[in-house]
Amino acid sequence: MSLLRIENAIRYFGGLMAVGDVSFTVPEGSVFGLIGPNGAGKTTVFNLITGNYRLDSGKIFFRNEDISRMATHRVVERGIARTFQNIRLFSGMTVLENVLAGRHCRMKAGPVAAMLRLPSQRIEERRAVARAMAELLFVGLAGHAGNLAKNLSYGNQRLLEIARALAADPRLIILDEPAGGMNDYETTALVELISKIRDRGITVMLIEHDMSLVMRACERIVVLEHGKKIAAGNPGEIQSDPAVIEAYLGGDDDEF
Amino acid sequence: MTVAARKIKKPLYAVIAACWLAAPFFLGNYQLDVLNNIAIYALLGLSLNIILGYAGMFHMGHGAFFAVGAYTTAVINTTWGVPVLWLLPLSGVAAGLFALVVAKPIIHLRGDYLLIVTIGMVEIVRIALVNNVFGITGGSNGIFGIDAPSLFGRTISGIVAPGDYFYLVTAFLAFTITVFYLLEHSRFGRALQFLNQDPVAAEGSGIDTARYRLAAFGIGAFWAGMVGNLYASKITFISPESFSFWESVVMFMIVILGGAGSIPGVLLGAFLIIGLPELFQGLQQYRLLLFGIVLVAMMIFRPQGILPPAPRSYGVAEDDGENGGQNSAQDGASGGEVRP
What we know:
The complex is a heterodimer. By secondary structure, chain A is α/β, with parallel strands linked by helices. Chain A has a domain at 2-79 and 170-249: P-loop containing nucleotide triphosphate hydrolases (Rossmann fold, 3-Layer(aba) Sandwich), CATH 3.40.50.300. Chain A has ten helices and ten strands. In chain A, the strands form two sheets. Chain A has a six-stranded mixed beta sheet, with helices on both faces. Chain A has a four-stranded antiparallel beta sheet with strand order 2-1-4-5, with helices on one face. In chain A, helix 7 links the parallel strand 7 (172-176) and strand 8 (203-207). Chain B has a domain at 44-245. Chain B is 68% helix and 1% strand. In chain B, strands 1-2 form a two-stranded antiparallel sheet. The longest helix of chain B is centred in the middle third of the chain and has 27 residues, at 209-235. Chain B is globular. At the A-B interface, helix 2, helix 3, helix 4 and helix 5 of A face helix 6, helix 7, helix 8, helix 9 and helix 13 of B.
């Protein structure tokens, strides 16, 4: 069953076509890769899904619900959480608080409940902290809970973004270049983490430049170039697709 | 913050609170009146802190909400004789509703743009009061003869008996500090800080940023309106001059100078900005100059304020390894409550 369905998505920036008539579906329970050369429109597609950008035309369905015009926080509520290419943490707050941010949309207590410290609010808060700690444990950052987010290493900041996204109980998690700035060891651990996320029943969609990671982690891949879909398939098919080789190698370029 | 500083924090706060409570036994009426003013401005600073400190919205028109609260109390009390303390919540509601209406269209503005619009707002309110727009505000003469608050049959006059009034305003201040502390350490308070630090990431974490910005304005204004009620009944006479643009600037300075987003910082800011000029009375006309120099120096050498917010702890052990993490989550569950 398709979890996410993108139909003829088009988005212009001024006169530039960033995404032109892209359609694909993401099956539930898979690890799905979106790749392509720089400027191919990958991040734009992510931003269209999460409502950060509006579609100029086309539709996006999530669990058969049209989310094309939905505000970002509503999309998160529906079950799509994301990380950012250029890490966006709440850097002056603690690691734990960053994960609690992801938990926000699954909590209910408003300002009045907080001021009166109602029992329901306390229970909810306690559960949220426990859940946030569990997510930190899951990504391997439990020991850093009380540190400020800005004091984490680059790789750990990426993991914290993943923990924050997981805390929102997503059905689909979107990772925008999760291995950016990671060393080989961290990247290998990330591949493992991605499969652990999938084992929790969460569909993973990722953009990545690191081809070896994409080929290792993804079951299905869509390739974009200049805002258009040029190929789709499993890693084996993608690697031998002439259009993909052409896009990545630029014809008879001697550099790989 | 160092461990030592954290350790002395609680006893230090206790000593300060004890000194504050004992002040009427040692101070004369004039000094007590200064303390009452400090408390009023501390309350205004705390209410502005919700908007400016936590949510990071540059709002320099807080005096407008203060004015709406004060005038609500003054008009209803002098017209129908409703006891002023009964009007406390109503003044808050009036200011809060006013804020929701005026903030709704400007909520998406950021930084300097919002600043300019809020300055315009407070000036419009002042001019409306001067021009007696609804025929009930007394124009530039203001409103005389507001009743002093009375509690259990006892009249608490801010003019005749500042010592009595001191305990009334202190009680309200203590209530406010408690409630705002709880608010800061909650889902709501965190959401404001998230959208302050990175609105895109906050929205991407499922926080309805527009709604929370508006709610911050509503709550901050509600509180400022209640403070307006206390102020009007303290001096029993209000006029548009009491709500000039300068008042809003003073509130803004209290929050920024003391430490935006920090309750102790705002309290200290109120003490310094309202109290210090009184201490320097002897310097006469030079005191404002000195005051200005201190402000400039502060902003250069400590732009985050004197007491910036400290990281919150949730009762989770910080230095245990990954294996201990699950246990510490349980500890966090039992200990993650109020840190007094």
